[in-house]
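1st attempt posting a full record on here, be nice pls
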Amino acid sequence: MRDFIYRHKKTESQEELLKLLKEIDSICRENDIQYYLDSGTALGAFRHGGFIPWDDDADLAMTWENYKKFEQAVNAGTVETKRIVVNSKSVPEQINVFGRYVNLENTKIVQSCQFWNEDAPAGQVIDIFILLPVPRGEEAEFINLYTVYDEFQNEITRHRAGRTDEFIALYKEMQKRSQTEGRDAVVREMEARLFDRDVQEFDLYLYTTGGKRQALTMPREWFEGETRYYEFEDCRLPLAPRFIEKFRMEYGDDYWIMMQTGNFKIHSDLHSAAVPAKCYIRDYMRFLNKDEVLDHRKKFKDIKVLEGWKEKESIEKIYAFESFRVARSIKSRIERENLDIQALLDSHEGSVLSDLFSEYYQKQFSSAYIYWAYIIDLPEDIMRVALLNYIEQFNGFGKVSKFFHRYREVRGEIKGALKDVEDLLDTCFYMQARFDYGEYDEGRKLLDLAEQKYSHLKCVKIGRVKYDAHDAISKDDIYRCRARIDELLTKYENDPELIKYLGDTYWKQGDEEKAFALYERSYPDLKNGTLRLDIENKVKGAMSC
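the predicted structure (as tokens):
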């Protein structure tokens, strides 16, 4: 393979995970069980052709009915007894309600989920998240009940930071009842209301993952239709019919963007492919008073769950002062310098606007402001220009998308001047998604709509090039596309995405040397993982001939 291609070698943990994924795929095929790669594992299949290079876990999703079949197939012994499916009910130390496929022969221990019994299953795992049908007409009540159950079932780890009055009232009610009726009885009642129902009429699935700010729901239609299969390392594994819409919810509108080195995290604190977990647990448990540690963690959890809103209240006071100062500074400068910010946006004076809004961007798009759903109060017309400039100058689709997600939580429906920005996000997202799904006719219609209103934006111009480079078949089409790219490169000099598409025009003509020269030039700076993967596949294919 050409020297400029990044060579990722699977880690020891990924080798183990791939083995387990293949086992699960075999079990599901044999037992007519539908499952999908999920979260970072699905993103890896789509963007990397396998594991995300720095990832050290794997996630799947199944509907509730399929999960029950899978759990029965594994735990009934249809596979070797060195594997087991566990959840927080069977193993209380598990932090997720559902579920995990565990290798009992090796070790994986994470700080947030320590295993306290020597014989507890603490090996390499595949997380399995459940798609639970939400009864139509009972959405708010059902989601609140599950959120309480999620926290109630796991006694030592706080899952969700977002709290409502309804949640706190129900959580306190269940705690009080558990003291008189017994905790197991209360849990069984909640389980009957959540899981032991034949739900036929529903529009949403509730996604049973922990560690999120709030319970997540997804439209039923995302999982209806033909399953999509993607290359994953040396096999092909399934993704949900509308997996890109889920990417948007989890990762924002720039789900294809490669994370920068140093910005990623791993999940495992301790991993060993060869040594059983009990060897480690037996050793470190000698230094811990298990009952004392668990007691402290339970008390801490109750405080965090029931009093967590006070933390947000105190943080908001700090943010309010900072936000007032930032907003006042921006408005004062606009008035003092008599800036026509709309004219600056239309004339592509991005450097002036970026300087004007630099502190706003730094704070509003910080992980802290996004997490706490805090909105800096700029007038809508000024905020609109700030957001459009951020999209144009910094390719900020993902962060603006996450900002709007939090905005809706706090202030409801997006209206007025900001609706224009939301429309741009939606149009560009679905234009990209249709391309990635191979639904090119629908994508072109969206591109035409985008050009009617946003033709001056770089993202729309490059969107046209993307479709033109794909559609070009005849010599004339290829030359026209190449001329358009050359013209844009005079304005967006050395843009790696444009250079990649320029390489594609030569690839279509069969001129591999020119194509590879352009690919080599663009590849190191490409942040778009799907384009990097396309280059890798073309180079790999050429080398195998």
